[in-house]
Amino acid sequence: APTHRGVVIPDDWPGYSPDLFTYxxxxxxxxxxxxxxxxxxxxRTERLARDIMDDLxxxxxxxxxxxxxxxxxxxxxxxRIQVLNRNSSKSLLMTVDFIRLKSYLNDHSTPDIQMIxxxxxxxxxxxxxxxxxxxxxxxxxxxTLLTHVQAFHPKLIKVAGLLVKRVTNQSVxxxxxxxxxxxxxxxxxxxxxxxxxxxxxxxxxxMSEDGKQxxxx
Length: 217
Ligand code: 5GP
Known about the structure:
Blueprint: E1 7-8, E2 31-36, H1 38-56, E3 60-67, H2 71-87, E4 93-105, E5 108-116, E6 128-136, H3 140-150, E7 156-165, E8 177-182, E9 187-188, E10 204-207, H4 209-214
Parallel strand pairs: 1-8, 3-4, 3-6, 6-7, 7-8
Antiparallel strand pairs: 2-10, 4-5, 9-10
């Protein structure tokens, strides 16, 4: 089976009952299901770290973390690469930078993408850049970011995306490293939010209708 799509989660995947796992009490009643348990995310991240090491090992990279949703995946991925750095003959010198993008209100994309911290991207010139994103939906956000990053003439750009949604108008640009391909559901947790809530949830989950209502703006 091809691996470039990552772990493919089928359309009829029901997830797990939240009661089979642990999660903060303040979200009780707010979750429909645990869609991807935290342990599975970590296991997949471990493999992505190895793939990145195999491709880029012995080079220097600038990890560009896309905030806010990407912070958890980025820090876990970087930590996994650090473990490999300590335990193999190859190593990958990393520096980390951050950019913040915002385009969502409630569970819908808005046309204007706000970019914060873009002025400092001149550090990327001539460098190998690894963009780390939590989720790619239409691909618009990633496309905007890529165009912006390319303007600073890095030597190489690679993208790691934890989640890619299977959407009909499949985006032009997809990450080089994909954690999971998921159906077109709105997911939260593992730093992914709904109006800033649910970032403090370790599993990737689907919200219940009650949860959506409670935190709607
Ligand atoms: P795109 O531009 O690819 O359509 O959307 C990407 C951005 O929208 C992501 O960086 C993320 O901020 C947000 N997004 C898209 N789908 C989801 C989702 O299912 N859950 C959450 N929490 N954010 C999403």
